[in-house]
Structure formats: C-alpha cells, structure tokens
C-alpha cells in the first residue's frame, strides 16, 4: 500500500514539474530595432528590443514581432523564422528573403499604412490579417503556403 502511494506521489510530482515548466513560455513582444548595418531578421544579432535591452530573436512561435516607426524598414529574413503574431505600426515596411512561419495574426494598424512581405510565408492553419492598413503578400522565389487566409 505504501509503495503504491509513493508511486502516485512520485507520478504527481513529475506531472506538476512538467506543468510548471511548460507554463514558463508566455508570449513576449519584441520590437524591430534593425538599422542599415543590421537589417537582417535572424537569430544571431541583438536587433530586437524587449522593452529594456537589445536581444536576439528567440525564434519561438509564442513570441510576437512589432515593426514600429524607429526600425529600418527594409528587412531581410533568413530561412526558418518562427513568429507568433506580427504587427506593423508604421508605414512602408518591406520584408524580403527566406521563409517566415507566422503564428495567428498579421496586423497593419493604420489605414494609411502598407506592409509588403516578399519573403515566403508558410502557415498550416488559418492566418488572419487584422487592422485597417494594407498587407501585400508577393513572395519572390516561390509561392506562399497558407492553408486559409482570413481578413478582419
């Protein structure tokens, strides 16, 4: 009987440990801070701002990319960029290069703003375009692979 109870306690502690560990990966917002010298979206250079310091792109599907007014607007993406949501709060961004694996939503905030993505986009579920601005998807060097595009 005690052995069974000890096994259950051990099993519960393992389950609790897994649950606590998985709860630590909350979505974070990172703001693009690239410039003419470092204009490539990659996982090697600290060209993203996390609110307090420059950091490298974490390349997780839970993290959100914000493209604001202070960053260099011609952005080259390397292959295999993973991102949660993407938000463009400034006009005139152009994303080129490799393949981006977006999460749920791409937002272009203001009606007078346009964001153009020429990098390939791969999304196996619904990708939602939000906001009043214009999103142009025109991949170079291949086609986008998006299951469903929803516009709201």
Features:
single chain; 152 residues; mainly beta; 10-stranded mixed sheet; 5-stranded parallel sheet; 15 strands; 14% helix
Write the layout of secondary structure elements.
Layout: H1 2-22, E1 29-32, E2 40-41, E3 48-49, E4 54-55, E5 64-67, E6 74-77, E7 81-82, E8 86-88, E9 93-97, E10 99-101, E11 105-108, E12 114-117, E13 120-130, E14 134-137, E15 145-151
Parallel strand pairs: 1-5, 2-6, 5-8, 6-9, 7-10, 8-11, 9-12, 10-13, 11-13, 12-14, 13-15
Antiparallel strand pairs: 1-3, 3-4
Describe the structure.
The chain has one helix and 15 strands. It is globular, with a radius of gyration of 19 Å. The strands form two sheets. Strands 1, 3, 4, 5, 7, 8, 10, 11, 13 and 15 form a ten-stranded mixed sheet that branches. It has a five-stranded parallel sheet with strand order 2-6-9-12-14, with no helix packed on it. It has 152 residues and is mostly beta strands. The termini are far apart.
C-alpha geometry: globular
Helix content class: 10-25%
- Derived from helix and strand composition plus strand pairing, the structural class reads mainly beta
Number of helices: 1
**Low-confidence runs (pLDDT<50, min 5 residues)?**
6-24
- What is the succession of H and E elements? HEEEEEEEEEEEEEEE
On the 0-100 scale, what is the average pLDDT?
Answer: 83
Let me know the number of strands: 15
Q: Characterize the main sheet.
A: 10 strands, mixed
Distance between the termini: 59 Å
Strand content: 35-45%
Radius of gyration: 19 Å
């Amino acid at each position: 009987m005690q052995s069974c109870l000890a096994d259950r306690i051990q099993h519960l502690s393992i389950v609790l440990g897994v649950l606590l560990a998985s709860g630590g990966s909350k979505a974070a917002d990172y703001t693009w801070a690239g410039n003419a010298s470092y204009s490539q979206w990659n996982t090697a250079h600290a060209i993203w701002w996390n609110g307090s310091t420059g950091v490298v792109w974490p390349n997780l599907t839970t993290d959100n990319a914000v493209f604001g007014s202070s960053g260099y607007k011609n952005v080259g993406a390397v292959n295999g960029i993973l991102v949660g949501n993407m938000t463009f709060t400034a006009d005139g961004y152009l994303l080129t290069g490799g393949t981006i694996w977006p999460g749920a939503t791409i937002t272009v905030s203001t009606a007078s703003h346009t964001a153009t993505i020429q990098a390939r986009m791969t999304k196996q579920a619904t990708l939602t375009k939000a906001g009043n601005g214009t999103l142009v998807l025109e991949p170079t060097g291949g086609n986008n692979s998006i299951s469903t595009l929803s516009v709201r």
